[in-house]
């Protein structure tokens, strides 16, 4: 397959990490990453000007998340990913499972809701439109596990094991669309599970863990399927350029190993984030209960003691 529309991928020398990290920006993703960082920075600066604090950890998480997208799409990793299944799989795994988690931990929607000014009574500005979108039926559907888990799975099996992948890789817009899809699928899958931002679907913490572990094993099975295959399974990578000095089947096996290994990384990251969120939620609830007890003189405890006293009196 000719990938000349995506750069000089046919003349790439054998892959090394140093060569892969050389600058080779995709204009779409370069602009998107700069725009994302710029808007987030504007929001943080606006809060700071009016004296509001924004957690530094959220800013760090968001910036690193966006930079991981830039690392995958604005270096020669993107060029090598056009002709090497293993490098492409690194791109896919990072953009669909690492970048979304970090971006979500940055709480960009919460920042936008706090930074954007209200439009005024009876008018709809950007803040009002964002709220309408968050509470829309569309958002309830695309963040429900009955939608997110099958979508997460189909993005692997329905893409790589059908001719759709080769079709998308055959054009620059198709390739960009596929990478945007990977990122979007990661966002809608992980948002209800561990996202800081408010959302229409927010189950309890145990249910969130179940949602996480319902999707992750399919990544491992997908990786194993690639590693056990006796012939190349994806047409795009069947005939790698001779200049790379690689064999298609061994490169596919490496891609399978990467997919299998990466299924563990987001599980650990999300589990840690969930445990911290669960602990923080319990602490906030305990503080609310303490404040309520201070306000009403702990009437709930008094009522319980009175109930015990009445039982004791009846026992006599």
Layout: helices, strands, pairs:
Blueprint: H1 17-20, H2 27-49, H3 56-73, H4 76-80, H5 85-105, H6 108-115, H7 126-134, H8 137-142, H9 145-160, H10 164-169, H11 172-194, H12 205-228, H13 248-262, H14 264-296, H15 299-315
Helix pairs in contact: 2-3, 2-6, 3-5, 5-11, 5-13, 5-14, 9-11, 9-12, 11-12, 12-13, 12-14
What's the quick description here?
With 316 residues, the protein is mainly α.
How can the largest sheet be summarized?
none
Round the Cα radius of gyration to an integer and report it: 25 Å
Sequence of secondary-structure elements: HHHHHHHHHHHHHHH
| Beta fraction | under 5%
**How would the global form be characterised?**
globular
For the secondary structure, the number of strands is 0
Structural class: mainly alpha
Helical proportion? Answer: over 70%
Average pLDDT score? 85
Number of helices: 15
In whole angstroms, how far apart are the ends? 91 Å
> What are the low-pLDDT stretches, counting only 5+ consecutive residues below 50?
1-5
Describe the structure.
It contains 15 helices and no strands. The chain is globular, with a radius of gyration of 25 Å. It is mainly alpha-helical. It has helices at residues 17-20, 27-49, 56-73, 76-80, 85-105, 108-115, 126-134, 137-142, 145-160, 164-169, 172-194, 205-228, 248-262, 264-296, 299-315. The termini are far apart.
List keywords for this structure.
disordered N terminus, mainly alpha, 316 residues, 72% helix
């Amino acid at each position: 397959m000719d990938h000349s529309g995506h750069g000089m991928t046919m003349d790439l020398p054998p892959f090394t990490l140093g060569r892969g990290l050389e600058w080779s920006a995709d204009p779409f993703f370069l602009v998107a990453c700069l725009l994302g960082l710029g808007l987030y920075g504007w929001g943080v600066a606006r809060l700071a000007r009016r004296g509001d604090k924004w957690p530094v950890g959220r800013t760090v998480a968001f910036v690193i998340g966006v930079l991981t997208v830039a690392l995958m799409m604005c270096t020669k990793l993107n060029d090598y990913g056009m002709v090497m299944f293993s490098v492409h799989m690194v791109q896919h795994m990072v953009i669909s499972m690492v970048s979304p988690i970090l971006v979500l931990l940055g709480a960009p929607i919460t920042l936008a809701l706090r930074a954007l000014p209200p439009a005024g009574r009876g008018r709809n500005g950007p803040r009002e439109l964002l709220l309408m979108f968050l509470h829309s039926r569309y958002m309830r559907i695309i963040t429900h596990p009955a939608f997110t888990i099958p979508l997460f799975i189909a993005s692997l099996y329905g893409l790589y094991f059908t001719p759709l992948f080769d079709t998308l890789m055959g054009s620059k817009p198709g390739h960009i669309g596929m990478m945007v899809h990977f990122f979007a699928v990661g966002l809608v899958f992980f948002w209800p599970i561990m996202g800081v931002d408010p959302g229409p679907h927010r189950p309890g913490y145990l249910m969130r863990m179940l949602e996480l572990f319902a999707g992750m094993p399919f990544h491992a099975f997908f990786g194993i399927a690639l590693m056990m295959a006796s012939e190349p399974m994806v047409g795009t990578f069947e005939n790698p350029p001779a200049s790379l000095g690689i064999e298609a089947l061994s490169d596919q096996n490496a891609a399978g190993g990467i997919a299998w290994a990466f299924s563990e990384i987001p599980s650990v990251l999300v589990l840690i984030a969930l445990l911290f969120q669960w602990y923080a939620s319990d602490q906030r609830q305990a503080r609310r209960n303490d404040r309520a007890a201070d306000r009403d003189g702990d009437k709930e405890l008094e009522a319980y003691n009175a109930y015990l006293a009445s039982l004791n009196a009846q026992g006599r």
